[in-house]
Amino acid sequence: MSALIAQLNSQWAPRLLSVLRIVTAVLFLQHGTAKLLGFPHVPFFDGLSLFSLIGLAGVLELVGGLLLIAGLLTRLTAFILSGEMAFAYFIGHAPKGFFPILNNGELAILFCFVFLYLAAAGGGAWSLDRRLCRSKLNST
C-alpha cells in the first residue's frame, strides 16, 4: 500500500502543485482587476488612486496574478506577493482586532502562506519556469 501511495505522490504532487498555483493566482488576480480595472465592480475601490497603497497593491495583484497563472518567475513573484499579503494583514486587518475571523483577515493570511509555500516549492509541473529550465538544460 505504501508503494502505491509513494507512486501516486511522485506522479501527482507536481501536478497538484500547479493546480494550487493556478487556482490561487486566478482568485488573487480578481483583486487586482477589481482595483485597477473595476471588474468585478467593488464600490470600495471607486475613485482609487493608482499612487496609493491600495493602488500599488492592485498593480502587484494584477501583474503577480498573471505571472503566477503562467508559472513565470514563480518563486520571486510568490515571495513578493507573500510579503504584500503580510503587510496587508498587519496594516489593514490586525488593527481591527486580534482574531482574523473578526478583523476579516483570513484571506490575507491564507494568501500569504500559500504564496510562501509556492516561493519554496516552485511552480509545479505545468509552469513556464519548468519548461524554460528544461529547454535551457537541453540546449547546453
From TrEMBL:
Q: Name one Pfam family in it.
A: DoxX
Origin superkingdom: Bacteria
* Localization in the cell: Cell membrane
Alphabetically list the UniProt keywords: Cell membrane, Membrane, Transmembrane, Transmembrane helix
In its keyword annotation, does this UniProt entry include Cytoplasm? no
The membrane topology noted for this protein in its Swiss-Prot or TrEMBL record is:
Multi-pass membrane protein
Q: List the GO cellular component terms.
A: plasma membrane
- Positions of transmembrane segments: 12-30, 50-69, 76-95, 107-128
- Keyword Membrane listed? The answer is yes
Give the protein family. Belongs to the DoxX family.
Question: What name appears for this protein in its UniProt entry?
Answer: DoxX family protein
